[in-house]
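Quick one: co-fold with pyridoxal-5'-phosphate.
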Amino acid sequence: MKTGNLTRRKFLTTSCIALSAAGVGSGVQKLWGQARPRPLEAPDIHPGYIGPQFFDECEEQALLEVLESGSPFRYWGPGKPTKVLRFEERFADYMGARLALGVTSGTAALDCAVTGLGIGPGDEVIVPAYTWWSDYTCVVHAGALPVFADIDETLNIDPKDFERKITDRTKAVIAVHLLGGPCDMQPIMETAKKRGVTVLEDCAQCVGGSYRGKKLGSIGDVGIYSFQINKMITSGEGGAVVTNDPAIYERAARFHDMGTIRSVFLDRAGPSRVQTFAGENFRMSELTGAVLGAQLAKLDTMLEQLRGNARAIYHGIKNLAGIRLRHRPDPEGDIGYGVFFQMNDKAMRDRCIRELRNRKVPASTLTGSVLLPIQESVVNKRTRHPDWPSFNSAEGRKIAYGPESCHQTLEVFDRFVQVRVGPKYTERINDYIIDSVREVCEALM
Ligand SMILES: Cc1ncc(COP(=O)(O)O)c(C=O)c1O
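Sure, here it is.
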């Protein structure tokens, strides 16, 4: 709603300032307080999938080049396939890492990274209790044991609980940068270094994010990304691994290609240190590489737009009584995927979401991940074969999942409201969301 050249929120804010300057405190109170303002006029709000909103002739041209060359396979064909090769080089460069490997999905990237770190039977890997399935399955499939650590008000792994969960069997921690926000990497890296634990950064939900000036994925020993449609840059499906460590890289590259190694990877990582072992086929196709190359060139634009919108909305609700914003250890590094705040309890959180949705604001509980320790298949340690060695070992039988293992995570989850942010939001949409959150929260207090 426009009032002259002012958006509605600016008009109301200006009115509030004017009223309070005139000593009419109760007028301000009335605008936001007891008297319910008339309903706001909802604009169309569609946060949408991020990457596809930037598809244009660049992706089209890159795909055409692959089709016309008749070479959709990355290693050979009638043309000279270089799309995946170039994407890997540019992706490593963008992330500030020495080496990158393109694969078929984020899940495949996790399997490669876990292989790269040499994780296997007898090892424990600390995983946040709220994250995507693949952070759990990559540990299980490697024959190691997942140990859950709680999340905190960053919505990411609680560095203190990570430290508490370390045993002499802990080989690695998966620091998942969830919902567009970086983990608090400093205490995580300090503890990991002190206790000899390797760090795998899962940046699937935070592609392009950073922490204290370093791109996510380049801080720990190895980083992974997903390019599935819900993520930042997308080719529908796809993933990548980055590392500075040539030994990790060689093992990951071998695992992604049947356990063998091609010269391109040895050219990058130096002479082989590992013999051929049983691997998988997670090779990225040239069609995927073509789309990702075009998308990568637009990542900074996507980030700028998302971040600008998220910043405006956070700014507009930051002093609102009765809510606490997501704790962000480095707000500059957040990619702006959403705006997150917590209410006093679940009942109030649910009412807040309901009211916001009535106003067509894209509000929900936290999305995109799973409360893993309370999933039936996790509680019962169900794998693809009942005699799975890790869960049948003495340690595996002892380990107990379920709600008792993740109290704090369940509490945090139940208090949070998520409001999605879109890269193409206008000032009017941002203002409308701010007004709606203020109106709903103040009415609930
Ligand atoms: C945190 C996290 N890690 C890993 C993955 C796996 O990525 P993909 O779907 O590409 O296999 C996802 C996917 O949603 C994710 O959210």
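If it helps, The chain has 18 helices and 17 strands.
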